[in-house]
Amino acid sequence: MAAIRGRDTKPELIVRRGLHARGFRFRLHAKNLPGRPDLVFPKHRAVVLVNGCFWHGHDCPLFKWPASREQFWHDKISANIERDIRNRAALETEGWHVAVVWECALKGRGKTDAGDVIDSLSHWLLTADTELVIEGFR
Fold first, then answer.
1. Nearest residue to 47 via CA among 66, 30, 67, 62
2. Which of 33, 54, 93, 121 has the fewest CB atoms within 10 Å, measured from its CB?
């Protein structure tokens, strides 16, 4: 598991490059915020979380419970889900707008066009909407 990347993943890079090309400027993995969000837009008081479907237990075709060491993986992924809920609530309590982009939106059979994902995020950043969730088709 040491080789698994926690940052600079392919889905995260797609989102970063797309938003940067549209003129949005952001900070990466801000240590002073709960959960160290992937992208932080201080000007818009917004954060974007790019979640891997396996590691965050997303109910989609990309997620499947491992057949070996079932209890270990159940405990680990359940803890990740609980931590995500806590961190998101803490961010919202501090007045941050939160968007979650799931890996399945950019990868797999049900993926959405990357341009559409970037369009949605761009529109969300420029509006007063407090939250956004982008998922792939099921």
1. 30
2. 93
pTM for this entry = 0.91
pLDDT in tens, 14-45: 999 999 999 999 999 999 999 999 999 999 99
Per-residue tokens: 71: 């209890």
End-to-end alpha carbon distance in the chain: 28
Rounded-to-integer distance, Cα 108 and Cα 54, Å: 13
What CATH number did the domain enclosing 128 receive? Answer: 3.40.960.10
Return the beta strands (E) in the chain as ranges: 27-28, 39-41, 46-51, 97-102, 131-134
Please tell me the distance from the alpha carbon of residue 29 to that of residue 9, in angstroms, as a whole number. 13
CA distance 125 to 138: 26
Number of domains in the chain: 1
Helix/strand/coil (H/E/C) assignment for every residue in 60-97: CCCCCCCCCCHHHHHHHHHHHHHHHHHHHHHHHHCCCE
The pLDDT of residue 137: 81
